[in-house]
Structures are given as structure tokens and as C-alpha cells.
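Hi team,

Filling in the usual template for the complex we talked about on Friday. All components are listed, including any nucleic acid strands or ligand strings, so the model treats them as one assembly.

SUBMITTER: L.P.
PURPOSE: interface mapping
COMPONENTS: two
RESIDUES: 596
SEQUENCES:
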Amino acid sequence: MSMTITEKILSSHTGKKQLKPGEFILAKVDLTLGNDITAPLAIEEFEKLKLKKVFDRDRIALVPDHFLPAKDLKAANAAKTLKNFASKYKIKNYFEIGCMGVEHALLPELGLVAPGDLVIGADSHTCTYGALGAFSTGVGSTDLAASWALGKAWFKVPETIKFIYKGKFNKWVGGKDLILHTIADIGVDGASYKAMEFTGEAIESLDMDDRFSICNMAIEAGGKSGIIAPDRKTYGYVRKTPGYKSVSDKVWKDKVKNWSKLVSDKDAKYSQIKTYDVAKWEPAVACPHLPSNVKPISQLKNAKLDQVVIGSCTNGRISDLRIAASILKGKKIARGLRLIVLPATQKIYLEAINEGLAEIFIKAGGVFTTPSCGPCLGGHLGIITEGEVALATTNRNFLGRMGDPKSFVYLSNPAVAAASAVKGRIAHPDEMS
Amino acid sequence: MIIKGKVHKFADDVNTDEIIAAQYLNLTKEEDLGKHCMETLDKDFSKKVRKSDIIVAGKNFGCGSSREHAPRAIKGCGISCVIAGSFARIFFRNAINIGLPIFEIKNTSDIKSNDLLEIDVKKGIIKNLSNNKIYRSSAFSEFMQELVSVGGLMNWVRERKKR
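RESULT (copied from the run log):
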């Protein structure tokens, strides 16, 4: 019988030849992830089991990225809990600040996730790795603790919605806009419990950074996972990572041969098929207080801003910073506005410095700061107060997300964010030329 | 088990940032988290809750972040169970994993704040004592029932590790 890419990955991790949506499975996990917010709870639960070791010390990643560098004593304690656990169980992939980055940018960058992998993370945006052709999904802390004991996690095999994107993107429109337009169409629960399979010529045209942005926000439509079948761009990305660059050509060829089978069968069953023409889209902006509350940018010319944030697991990668810098070069941000740029990892941070992007942000009047989830979830490094309005390249604009319950958050791509920082209001990048 | 409690009603798409704001995520104890439950939507919520009260909401309850602090905060402030039109999936699995009873019923629109409900947890039958209506929640799958019956995921893991 035919299967989707998601069913194929899940079945290869259960030893069953055929899986059907709705079936409950206990599947092997290739990588499990926790951060400074979710891992302390998992550690507490795991320790209660009184086991001598974890299932596999190489398959656990601990990334203290949310409130680090420690914003207060409680954050410092949480970080210490992770560090002690990592040392007690000899966890290889524990990342102290200095090598830490925003988890969903860091793990792919290091080559810790590959096509066909099954990844769980106690963070909802774990769905990001679907961009590599992996099945990856967010779970809770107790799930994480259980996986450390068993090396497995329970799942209900999801139905899949197939999204087909046709046409060519207009200038300043990319992965972020694609996913915002999609969420606007299907709603914040439009893909509840389902795998979102992104396909079509428009997807194929996008580089990995844009693909990560797309899969990252599958959860904002309620999706269990987002996935893009791996192709040459995926392989090229993975091959350059520290995890794969020293692999011999022969081993690499075998891997690619296996990965190339990760496609949905032609007669695979979908719960729904949606088709879009991306050529019709202009940059999208999600208005307060839901990611689905999307308006074309041309309708939002009067939205005044107090703060612009460029960064996060959605849009803090090097290509995002390059786009923002291309707009900000030689410009000054609006008087009274705060621009906060957070590269997602140390590698991106250094690239941004070496390429002169950091200088552009600073000369424009912005802040260029260390990798952290920080302001995205109202943690630190840019909380907004009552009545303030922010535009962010992040993924959520829920009530109170960036700070005070009476503040407002808009979401956009990095080009719109940069242009808006200059104008002091939501602005189309074309206004800058 | 029978749960009896007063209703606190919420709308559709209540997200986990609203259930427990990010600034409290470095708390781990249920009672500490409970003091800040639903604070973004209602500053005094935790003070209004009496032990065994019930949250009733529309569709997509618990959407957003994976933070298990959300169901723990709900438990911690004394809420006995959550009834919703539907649950976001990570919240759903977190609730099952930590043993917070949840019930999905098709339409929650005629349950109002301050109604008194009586719930037969095992049968999933919900009686609204304020208007005498009866609702049946969708049954859990066999696997979920197994998790619930052993008292959550960690107990289930303990049993498997013994084998």
C-alpha cells in the first residue's frame, strides 16, 4: 500500500511495514531536545525513575536558549539544573552559552538532524526540522523524560494535508509570507493533529533558511509536523554541517540514496489537498493577537511601531539578516523606535560580523545582541510595556506574548521588519527604494 | 470518580501563553504556577478558583507553546478538569501525561460561567446541574485509557522498565 513521507518515516521507526493514520505507535527517537524552560521539569520526572543511565547519551540535546544568558536567579538555577544533568549522564550535546544558539537553528546547523530522522523536542517549534525531510514534533516535558528512559515516544499516526504551491514569488515575498498566508487560509487549528506536507515548484525554489521558516510555523496552524521532501538543496545543506562534512564519499552516497526514497507515493492518501498560487501574494503581516490574523501589507500603512525585533527560530538565520541589512544599509531607524537584532546562533553571529551586517545594524541605530529566544516569548532582551506595539520576525503574536497583556505584536518577514524600523510604522520594502 | 465544580468559562483558541505567561516558566511547582494561571486573561483568576472548579472553553484550547507548565498551572490552582470543544495536540498529550482530566464535547456554548457541573470521569458523562443538560465526551482511545488508568506516562514507563 502507498504511504506519505510522514508515514514512511514513522513506519521505519516502529518496524511495521504499513501504518495507518489514527493508529497508536511507540516509535524509536533519533534525537530528543529540551531547553532551559522545559528540561528542568523533564529532569525532575526522569530522576524519579532512579535509573542509572539515559537511553543514549548522544541522542539528547540540551539547549539553554530561552532565558540565557541568565536573566535572573531562577534562570541561572534552571541552567545549572541542565548543566548538572548533562554532566551526571555525560550528555554530549549540551550547549553552554558561547556555543549555544536558538535550538531550532542550532541543531540543523550542527548536522544533528538529517532527512528521515524522528525527532521530538519539548518545544513546540521542534516541527522546524521537517524542512530537512525529518519527522519532528513538539512534545511536553514528561514525554521528554519518558523518551530519555525508553528511547521511544508514543504517537498517533497523523493524517496529512498536502499543500501545493505554484508560481514564482514576487520580490520581498518568501517562506515567512508563504506560511503566514497559509495559516490565514486554514486558521490556527486548520491543521490540528495533522502533518502538513509542503510541495510544489515554489517550495523547490526556496533555500533551506526559507524552508525552515515554513516548517517552523506548522504548529501555528495546530499542525503536528511540517515536512518538505529532501532534495539537492537539503543534501547540500546537510553535507556542509560539522556532523556530515567529514563523512566519506561512499558513506555519503549511500545516505543520499536512502534519503532520496523519502517521498510520498503518488497514490498516497491525504485528508485534504490545498493549492495556492504564490505569484498572487504580497508580503504578509499577522496582526494582533493571532498568527492567522493576516493582512496584506498594503492595508497596514498606518500602524505605528515602538519596537522591531529581527531574530528567532523562525527568521534569525544568516539569509534573514542579509535581507534586513540590505534594506538598512546607509539608513537610520526612526527616532524613538527600538530595533533589536538577534542572530540565531554563534556561527550566524560571526558571519554577520564578518560580512559587515553587524556594522549596518549598529550604524542604523539598532541593537545587535547575543543569540537567545529572548523577546520572542517576552522572556528578556526586549519586553514591551502597556500600549506598546512591536513588529517581529518571530512566530507568535498572542495576547501578552512579548510582555504586557495590553501590548501588541505584529509578525512579518525580515525585509518588512527592516523597512518598518526605518519608517517607524509598518512599511513595504519597496518604499525604501 | 465524580467531579463536581463551578464553571469558569473561556473562549476559543486559549493559548498556553495566556494560561501561564513566559515570565513564570522558571517555576516548576504546581502550586507556584497555579498562582499565575490565566493571569493574562484575568488578573485575579487564581483567587476566584475554588478547589474542584472546572474550566470550560471553546475550540483549540491550549494552542501554542509546548510548555507543560500550562496544565500544571491549571492543576496547581485547584481546577479539577478542563472541558473544551477541542484541544490543541501538545496540550492534550501533556494533560494525559500528567493526569489532568480533560473532556472534549462538541458544543460548549450553552455552558455558562458559574454553572455547576457534575462529571462521571470514567464514563465521560457531564451533567449541567444548572440547566439539567447532559453531555457525553468523546471516548479516549484504548492507549490513552491505559495511560490514564496507570496514572500518567511516567507510571506507564515505570511498568515497562520493570518488564
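MY TAKE: Chain B touches chain A at residues 13, 15, 17-18, 21-23, 25-28, 40-41, 59-60, 63-69, 72, 86, 88-90, 93-94, 97-98, 141-143, 152-154, 156-158, 160-161 (CB under 8 Å). Strands of chain B lie at 2-9, 54-57, 81-84, 102-104, 116-120, 125-128, 133-136.

Thanks, L.
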